[in-house]
């Protein structure tokens, strides 16, 4: 499938107006190597290492010990180690790199080509800065609650849209050359109470937190699979080589030491081949986390920012000790190191990879290589300009992500207005500059990025006012502006002169370690900030052509003004990155016809969503019970019969489209790719059946062989793998052998390659019935029955159509698109085997459904493609029998409708 996507992208990018030879045009390969070869090289490398060298690959050097996250320097074999950095919006904490749009905007485009192109550019920038491993992309949070602080780092609460975007971003970043780390695994859906120390240190008025554990996200197995794990399946399929486990607990167990999640589901059921890295401080144990499947610790220290001890690690010397005293089997350490090196070879980083050429968070040219110890003063930043022509892709993603929600009497596009009023702080530059607040932790001037570790430095920020003024010169338009949201009399007088009044509002959110205006990461409400609602009504009260532009990390409530007849147009612009103003001008003036669609619902009131952040803990060990199950966002609105203001998938254009000619065709089962899948699962058998990665294990010597060598001098608080001098071996509990790994040995859904077989093609004709060319995002929804949402997205296709012309669009349904998770049998079940037809809908949004048809049930089918349990097929070595049928025919008619069981992990 990837080769196909890559070829399509290659062709379509070639027609885009990118300068010849630019780095991201065209992506030559989808960035996937070959896992079998990668593992062969990794084994060869790892099996020649000493025990401490292997430990060195798993444990980062510590807070501030080195100036960018690093690990694994092994001078004896000439390995210079691996460098790691954030983020989804660009290379974090440096200069001469791009500030990309938020991933939210990538989802708002619904454009596979653009998602991939921006991901590729971001990956290339990380690589060119010498970053081997980039902490991006994000699909946890998925966006269960619209208030969730980090939702904008991800894509959409719809798992299908998120899955496509997440998979494409992984593939794009990998192709750009850096190892994309999918994060945060899993159910990390809010900032409040994600970490003990962080939240207990907050001093909210009248509230004192005293939590003893991070929150536990509690959910049933079916919801876990169909909603929150769904996009991870995409990413594994698309070549994800690293995963970051999250801060929270899941059903009571810390995510990073959750055997069922890491060994069982991620590495077993999904067949993930890469490594699992902790988040800063999400590792809560040494032995348990290694046995549960964590492979690398970031920061290295026991808690974020070394609060509980600089230089003190659960791993490092403690992992060495644990292997020596048999608490952790050495083959597990071999596996950890092998997985890390397999990712490195999978991406081809052994050839020509640039050296790390900057220091995260330090823009100076010279500084200390070991900043905490203040040692080795040298050049730490080479200021390498890695931006290439990426501004173009950022501008395109920005423009194509803008969602137009209202456009009365063709208020837009602007047609050479005589006078424009531009109102609102969000239209102009910040007094402090675009990087004035650390990690973008403030809301000043125009908002183009949220705050936290998902941020990056802006090389520049084109604010809307500058871009509008620049464009207005062409028409001789008079441009007046007021950037003070509170100067009502000045606003009144300026807007009453104008032909069109552009009013800018925003709302912000980010990561929980920063508080902005009383918002501790998660938003406190869903309204526009800085009296945004009043500002809009103020302007509309004096201007009959008021055009609202909103920069937000998610939905905002619009009821106070959306029906005001003087509010003639509304544009949702997300968080557009460095090219913000240019992207907006493209749409305002019609150079680009709006084509974005909402990746979430805009409700009429906050309560309508049915989900929210927990702001006050329900006890010292907070529990977030995901009792809504599968029903978040539009699935909830549909199920509860609540009328949204704007539904999921909605977005207008400057032209109009009609839909006709629905066809629903089964794919000839004999053409299904049975047996042709890549044999990616062979590695796992090494873990379960025969835990021997390296033929000859290190011969364990006595402790003195592993103590700090006299030949090197230590840097203070740097985490080394060595035991302290004069230490002796402790006795540890022997690892709980078989039971720990039992999760992985017999997984019905293991590998589940048959999920990816194409089973149906749905197609339709879209006609551009307007007078201008435009792009339409045609959407496919299915009604699967059996307790599933009323309708759920299972396909989308963005097509550019000239005025008066038609285009054929098609959607390929894979078996997984027709499958639901059956918890009792731990397998995906194709609903066609469960009775009842599947409803098929094609339309312009989740509620604007223009065409419908059905996919028939296929009960007890004897031949061809049929329903039933979707197990693995072909080459998976998770079972001993390679001829295991990929579809099990149902016995006794139909199995029960899958029971949602709560599984205590
Ligand atoms: C914590 C964040 O949760 C994670 O997303 C980020 O990658 C790390 N810090 C490193 O900055």
From TrEMBL:
PANTHER family: BETA-GLUCOSIDASE (PTHR42715), BETA-GLUCOSIDASE A-RELATED (PTHR42715:SF29). Its EC number is 3.2.1.21. The lineage of its organism: Eukaryota, Fungi, Dikarya, Ascomycota, Pezizomycotina. It catalyses: Hydrolysis of terminal, non-reducing beta-D-glucosyl residues with release of beta-D-glucose. Residues 1-16 form the signal peptide. Belongs to the glycosyl hydrolase 3 family. InterPro entries: Cellulose_deg_GH3 (IPR050288), Fn3-like (IPR026891), GH (IPR017853), Glyco_hydro_3_AS (IPR019800), Glyco_hydro_3_C (IPR002772), Glyco_hydro_3_C_sf (IPR036881), Glyco_hydro_3_N (IPR001764), Glyco_hydro_3_N_sf (IPR036962). It comes from the Eukaryota. It comes from Hortaea werneckii EXF-2000. It holds the Pfam family Fn3-like. Residues 776-846 form the Fibronectin type III-like domain. Keywords: Carbohydrate metabolism, Glycoprotein, Glycosidase, Hydrolase, Polysaccharide degradation, Signal. GO terms for molecular function: beta-glucosidase activity. Pathway: Glycan metabolism; cellulose degradation. One of its GO terms (biological process) is cellulose catabolic process. This is beta-glucosidase. It is an enzyme of class 3 (hydrolase).
């Amino acid at each position: 499938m990837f080769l196909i996507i890559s070829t399509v992208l290659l062709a379509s990018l070639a027609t885009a107006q990118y300068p010849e030879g630019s780095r991201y045009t065209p992506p030559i390969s989808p960035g996937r190597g070959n896992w079998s070869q990668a593992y062969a090289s990794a084994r060869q490398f790892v099996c020649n290492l000493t025990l401490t060298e292997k430990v060195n690959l798993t444990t980062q050097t510590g807070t501030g010990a080195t100036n960018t996250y690093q690990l694994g320097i092994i001078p004896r074999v000439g390995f210079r180690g691996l460098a790691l950095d954030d983020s989804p919006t660009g290379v974090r904490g440096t200069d001469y790199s791009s500030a990309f749009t938020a991933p939210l905007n990538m989802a708002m485009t619904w454009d596979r080509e653009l998602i991939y192109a921006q991901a590729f550019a971001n990956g290339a920038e990380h690589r060119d800065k010498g970053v081997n491993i980039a902490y991006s992309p994000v699909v946890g949070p998925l966006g269960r609650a619209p208030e969730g602080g980090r939702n904008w780092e991800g894509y959409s609460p719809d798992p299908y849209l998120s899955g496509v975007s997440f998979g494409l971003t992984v593939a794009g970043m990998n192709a750009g050359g850096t190892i994309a780390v999918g994060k945060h695994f899993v159910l990390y859906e809010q900032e409040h109470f994600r970490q003990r120390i962080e939240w207990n240190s907050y001093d909210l008025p009248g509230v004192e937190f005293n939590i003893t554990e991070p929150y536990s996200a509690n959910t049933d197995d079916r919801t876990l699979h169909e909603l929150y794990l769904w996009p991870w399946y995409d990413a594994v399929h698309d070549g994800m080589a690293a995963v970051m486990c999250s801060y929270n607990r899941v059903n009571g167990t810390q995510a990073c030491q959750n055997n069922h999640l890491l060994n069982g589901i991620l590495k077993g059921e999904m067949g993930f081949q890469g490594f699992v890295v902790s988040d800063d401080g999400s590792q809560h144990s040494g032995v348990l986390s290694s046995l549960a499947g964590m492979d690398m610790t970031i920061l290295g220290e026991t808690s974020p920012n070394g609060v509980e001890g600089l230089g003190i690690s659960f791993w490092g010397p403690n992992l060495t000790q644990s292997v020596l005293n048999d608490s952790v089997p050495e083959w597990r350490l071999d596996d950890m190191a092998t997985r890390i090196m397999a990712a490195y070879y999978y991406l081809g980083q052994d050839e020509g990879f640039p050296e790390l050429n900057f220091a995260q968070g330090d823009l100076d040219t010279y500084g200390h290589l070991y900043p905490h110890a203040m040692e080795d003063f040298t050049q730490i930043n080479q200021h390498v300009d890695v931006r290439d022509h990426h501004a173009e892709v950022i501008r395109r993603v920005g423009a194509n992500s803008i969602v137009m929600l209202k456009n009365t009497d063709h208020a837009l596009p602007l047609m050479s207005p005589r006078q424009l009023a531009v109102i609102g702080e969000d239209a102009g530059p910040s007094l402090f500059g675009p990087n004035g607040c650390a990690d973008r932790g403030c809301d000043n001037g125009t908002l183009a990025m949220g705050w936290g570790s998902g941020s990056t430095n802006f090389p520049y920020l084109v604010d809307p006012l500058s871009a509008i003024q620049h464009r207005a010169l062409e028409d001789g338009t008079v441009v007046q502006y007021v950037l003070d949201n509170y100067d009502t009399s000045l606003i009144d007088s300026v807007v009453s002169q104008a032909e069109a009044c552009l009013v800018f509002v925003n709302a912000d959110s980010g990561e929980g370690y920063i508080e902005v205006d009383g918002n501790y990461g998660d938003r406190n409400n869903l309204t526009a900030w800085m009296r945004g609602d009043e500002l809009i009504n103020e302007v509309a009260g004096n201007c009959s052509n008021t055009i609202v532009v909103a920069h937000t990390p998610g939905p905002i409530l619009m009821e106070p003004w959306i029906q005001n007849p003087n509010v003639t147009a509304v544009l949702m612009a997300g968080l557009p990155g460095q090219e913000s103003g240019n992207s907006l001008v493209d749409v305002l003036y019609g150079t680009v016809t709006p084509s974005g669609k909402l990746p979430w619902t805009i409700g009429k009131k906050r309560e309508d969503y049915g989900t929210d952040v927990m702001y006050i803990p329900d006890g010292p060990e907070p529990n977030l019970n995901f009792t809504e199950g599968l029903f978040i966002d539009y699935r909830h609105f549909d199920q509860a019969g609540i009328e949204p203001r704007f539904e999921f998938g909605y977005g207008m254009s400057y032209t109009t489209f009609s839909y006709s000619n629905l066809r629903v065709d089964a794919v000839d089962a004999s053409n299904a790719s049975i047996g042709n899948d890549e044999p990616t699962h062979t590695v796992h058998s090494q873990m379960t059946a025969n835990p021997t990665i390296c033929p000859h294990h290190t011969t364990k010597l006595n402790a003195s062989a592993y103590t700090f060598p006299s030949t090197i001098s230590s840097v203070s608080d740097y985490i080394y793998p060595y035991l302290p001098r004069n230490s002796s071996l402790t006795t540890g509990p022997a690892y709980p052998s078989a039971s720990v790994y039992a999760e992985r040995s017999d997984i019905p859904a293991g590998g589940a390659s048959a999920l990816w077989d194409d089973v149906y093609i749905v197609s339709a004709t879209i006609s551009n019935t307007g007078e201008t060319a435009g792009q339409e995002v045609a959407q496919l929804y299915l009604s699967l029955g059996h307790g599933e949402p009323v309708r759920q997205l299972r396909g989308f296709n963005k097509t550019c159509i000239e005025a008066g012309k038609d285009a054929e669009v098609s959607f390929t349904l894979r078996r997984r698109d027709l499958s639901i998770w059956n918890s009792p049998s731990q397998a995906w079940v194709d609903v066609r085997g469960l009775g009842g037809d599947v409803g098929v809908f094609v339309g312009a949004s989740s509620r604007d459904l223009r065409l419908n048809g059905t996919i028939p049930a296929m009960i007890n089918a004897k031949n061809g493609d049929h329903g039933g349990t979707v197990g693995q097929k072909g080459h998976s070595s998770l079972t001993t029998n390679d001829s295991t049928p990929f579809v099990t025919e149902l016995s006794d008619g139909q199995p029960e409708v899958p029971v949602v069981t709560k599984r205590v992990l």
